Amino acid sequence: MLKEVTQFFKSFQFAKGLLITLAAVTAIAISYFAGKIEMGASLAFGVLLTSVPDIPGNTKHKLYGVLAAIIFAVINIILINLTYHHYILISITLLVLVFFYAYISVYGFRASLVSLSGLLAIAISMAHLRTGHDIILHAGVTALGGLWYLLLSTAYSLINPTQFSMQLLSEVMRLTADYLNTRAELILVDDSERKELLKKLFQLQTELNEKHESLRSVLLNARIKSGSTNYIKKQLMVFIELIDMLELAIANPMNYKTIDKNFKKDNKNIIKSFAAISQNIAIELEILSVKISKKNGSIRGADLDTLLATAHNDIENYKASVDVEQNRDKILLLRNLYDYIEQQAEKIKNIKRVLTITLKQTEKEQKSPNKKLLTPQDYSINTLKENLSFKSPIFKHSLRLTITVLAGFLIGSLFSIQNAYWIILTIIVIMRPNYGLTKERSKQRIAGTLIGGLIAVAIIVLTQNIYVYIAIILVSMTMGFSFIQQNYKASATFITLNIVFVYALLQPNAFEVIQYRIIDTLIGAGLAIVANYTLWPAWEFYYHNDLLIKSIESNINYLKEVKSLYNNKEDKSTSYVISRKEAFLAIGNLMATFQRMAQEPKSKQKNFMVLYEAVVIQHTFLSSTAAIGTYIQNHHTSSASSDFNDYIDEIIKNLNESIQLLKGNHIATSDSLKHREAINQIKSHYAELIKKRQEEISLGNLVITEETRSRLKEAHLVIDLLQYLFSLSEKLKKLVGTN
């Protein structure tokens, strides 16, 4: 608990919350001492709106995002104040502005934050209306507040440029550790307990894909901007090792039923020793995730070499106690498992080495980072045109949000609800393109508001001390903005406290403020949930086919790159790395849509089990493809045969036919024998290797040479994985063809 608290106070999120509070408080203080206290609220308003799109990444995009937020705030203040008292005009203004801001989120995550800033500006502009020249003055001062925050944020970035990337790297380490530990648990538990752990594994992989994408963008942009500083270089090298660790894990899928059948009963200690090493590797990563902030110094941990030696001895003892010919597959399974954890242990050593030494630039390290590894964002007008249809979830969300905001405004006006803009604010903050997330955020917002309201009541009953109220305002403001991305319920609790005590300073009846805050939150949350369910709902079954097609296409590209790698025997190319990244992101998106569907009403979970089966097949296919790719990279392999290439082509053919079936196209049925001929030739080669080894044993050569062992292992792995990939491609084609 203490460790989590310490990490939170060192986090970028807390630093940003503190920065927002500092910018707002200093702006208000300057206004107070200048005798212009009424301008303080406008300056704080500008600080708040500008902070929303202020996220690390590409410096140019960050600057454009913040400036866009300032411009949108000025436009909103002027238009809302000019039209508010004319019902038709304000309705038209809300319709145009809300739709526009919601719709620009098609440009990606940063644009969605600019969108949120613009929407918040609409709601907050209604809080204190102006007339005449005061409108322009309010808009100008708000812009100054935004520029003031931008100045402080830029200064902080220069003082502490690596904090965000360091935190992201630490989070990736912790998630990777959790992933590895969960895999170790899957080996040890009974089969009945594995379903929940496998769900957790899928969730962790989705989170890791998202964090990898964010960290890749931050680190490569930092290197492009600042060059190869020693610390950025270290972070990049650690990140590469972490990506390889995830690929290694995915590339070594466990057949738990086979492990249970062969080792759970009679040779459980062997499996326990492997699980213990995996758990110790996870612990090492956990320790390193805390130590990452230290730029030098020794890093001690478990003696992985001793644990590996014990596991190796266990394999040799098992081999000596059984008939090798009768148990060859079991021995190979243990050796593959040992190779996997040995490689993971080596990755841990590499990370420690990077963190504890002073790096010297080599020619390779001095190369500019490849911009192709960054996922590009298309900011052209075509993106807006392509999404201007009911097939686009963002277009439907924009319409839905516009209508819901207008309904909230109408309810607030008709019933003369005090601070009715809170209804609009609630709708804007919690409403999301999909039903599940909107429902979840609604629950968190309501719970946070109620908790904050109860705490506020208790404090107001206990004391009316103005200095206590000011302290609560400062603390709750910092904490509210710190938690906004991590824990929305906690954020809503602190923001409620902040609002209540700000009003408590301005007017005597704070209990009335709490009452209206709760009522407005309930109305806004209710409208958001109803709208997401009834107005052009974006149920996941509308879109999962497109995501499945994207995942299949990504797996095809990745498999083609693995085939090329096996044929050419070259170091992995940029195209290989990109295809791997795209395949990982695509399966992550597919798993995410499955998880979102699980949050939807049962009646809307169409083809739920079919999607689950497709996710499992695609994930397993990716794992097996990565297994071949990883093996090729880490071992000296023989020449790829034409039979290998033919078999891969047959697998790709099945995948392409699955895509055609998903698109609703008819495919010609054919019973090609090409894959059978190819695999029989590969099996024949494996049989010759085994026969040769048996002849060596009969001649008294009991010690197997490293070359023979390597050839046997490679042939066994290739046969197993090729057959498995083909069976998966057949299973996928059958699945999509019958649903």
TrEMBL record:
InterPro entries according to UniProt: Memb_transporter_dom, YccS_N
Lipid bilayer topology: Multi-pass membrane protein
Subcellular location: Cell membrane
Record PANTHER family: MULTIDRUG RESISTANCE PROTEIN MDTO (PTHR30509:SF9), P-HYDROXYBENZOIC ACID EFFLUX PUMP SUBUNIT-RELATED (PTHR30509)
Keyword entries, A-Z: Cell membrane, Membrane, Transmembrane, Transmembrane helix
Name this protein carries in UniProt: Uncharacterized protein
TM regions (residue ranges): 12-33, 63-80, 86-104, 111-129, 135-159, 398-415, 450-476, 488-506, 518-539
Any Pfam family the entry gives: FUSC-like
Start and end residues of each Integral membrane protein YccS N-terminal domain: 74-342
Signal peptide: none
Keyword Cell membrane: yes
Similarity section: Belongs to the YccS/YhfK family.
Annotated ranges, domain Integral membrane bound transporter: 409-530
